Amino acid sequence: MTGYEQRRDLGLLLLRLAVGGTLAAHGSQKLFGWFGGGGVKGSARFMESVGFDPGEPSAVAAGLAEGGGGTLLALGLATPAAGSAAAGAMTGASAVTWPNGFFAQKGGFELSGVLGAASLALAVSGPGRYSLDHVLRNVLNRPWMVPTALAVVGTGTALVVHKRDQRVQRQKEQKAAETAESHTDSHTD
């Protein structure tokens, strides 16, 4: 192994640990209430408040994609599936924060966007030699698994986000209609 390959593999390990660890921590907040998280019940209430309904299955799915995908990324195991799952979860999170712009301080998609892009990059690039995938001779990291995982997760994510966006739009329209009705009623008195 050349010095270049060692550097690349060490860089992939560091990236996997940082991204995977962050995602695993966020997933454990949703699933178990660790690190100040709401657990499934609290996360379900939040998910419903931002348009993901039903909330409890949405919270569990997001928690598993973040927690499971993050843990697997950190370990470098089943990297195409893990990276795709994590990227899908971050796409869902970005759909919520997109209207606020990019920067996190304004409630934007900065964190979810970066974590999603890094997860996607790891799914495509693979985990490197310092990984369980390498130890297991890449049995869960075959080239055909990358487009398959990305297609399956991408399709599922697109459907979920589209359904959520429709629900949010209906809620906005209903609220606008109620406001207009209330405004009209106040002028007729």
Automatic annotation (TrEMBL):
<dbReference type="Pfam" id="PF07681">
    <property type="entry name" value="DoxX"/>
</dbReference>
<keyword id="KW-1133">Transmembrane helix</keyword>
<dbReference type="InterPro" id="IPR032808">
    <property type="entry name" value="DoxX"/>
</dbReference>
<dbReference type="InterPro" id="IPR051907">
    <property type="entry name" value="DoxX-like_oxidoreductase"/>
</dbReference>
<protein>
    <submittedName>
        <fullName>DoxX family membrane protein</fullName>
    </submittedName>
</protein>
<keyword id="KW-0472">Membrane</keyword>
<feature type="region of interest" description="Disordered">
    <location>
        <begin position="164"/>
        <end position="189"/>
    </location>
</feature>
<keyword id="KW-0812">Transmembrane</keyword>
<comment type="similarity">
    <text>Belongs to the DoxX family.</text>
</comment>
<feature type="transmembrane region" description="Helical">
    <location>
        <begin position="72"/>
        <end position="96"/>
    </location>
</feature>
<feature type="transmembrane region" description="Helical">
    <location>
        <begin position="108"/>
        <end position="124"/>
    </location>
</feature>
<keyword id="KW-1003">Cell membrane</keyword>
<feature type="transmembrane region" description="Helical">
    <location>
        <begin position="144"/>
        <end position="162"/>
    </location>
</feature>
<dbReference type="GO" id="GO:0005886">
    <property type="term" value="C:plasma membrane"/>
</dbReference>
